[in-house]
Amino acid sequence: MNKSVLAALVLGASLTVTGCFDKQETAQKVEAAKDATANAATQVKDAAKEAATNAKDAAVEKVAEVKDASVAKVEEVKDAAANKMAEAKDAMSSKVEEVKNAASEAKDAAANKMAEAKDAMSSKVEEVKNAASETKDAAVEKVAEIKDAAANKMAEAKDAMSSKVEEVKNAASEAKDAAADKAAEVKDAVTK
């Protein structure tokens, strides 16, 4: 395509240069140059058309190939995705089942532990009740002992107090009698 244009230009330039020498020859050469230029232009145009048609056909073929490859790839991806989804679903179902079983086992274990804890708590509560009852009984006994001991001490103190009061009374009576005797002596001594 470029060679044809170049050839037409070279031919045109040659004719122009030689046209200066011979006018008639120049007119013929100009006609020939025109024809050659027209032919060259037609050839260039036809070559361009053919190249465009070839490029268009090649592009259409490539588009068809790309389309077919894309459709095939989309189908592959779709199938692979469907397979992966099925695998994921199966794995998820399996995991869900495992989790359900583990949850059920944990629930049963928790129920057993709660029952054990309840039994242990009941046993401890019973022990505490018994200990509290024993402590109460011991406290009642101790209070009774303290009460009896206090009563005995009070009785002893009362007896000791009574004996001291009696001693004081006797001492006071003796002192009174002794004072009365002394007063009588003093009186007799004074009156004599």
Q: How many beta-strand runs?
A: 0
Alpha carbon gyration radius: 71 Å
Distance between the termini: 194 Å
Residue runs with pLDDT of under 50 for 5 or more positions: none
What would you note in describing this structure?
- The protein has 192 residues and is mostly helical.
- Helix content is 97%, strand content 0%.
- The chain contains two helices and no strands.
- The chain has helices at 2-19, 23-191.
- Helix 1 (2-19) packs across helix 2.
- The longest helix is centred in the middle third of the chain and has 169 residues, at 23-191.
- The protein is rod-shaped, with a radius of gyration of 71 Å.
- It starts with a helix and ends with a helix.
- The mean pLDDT is 83.
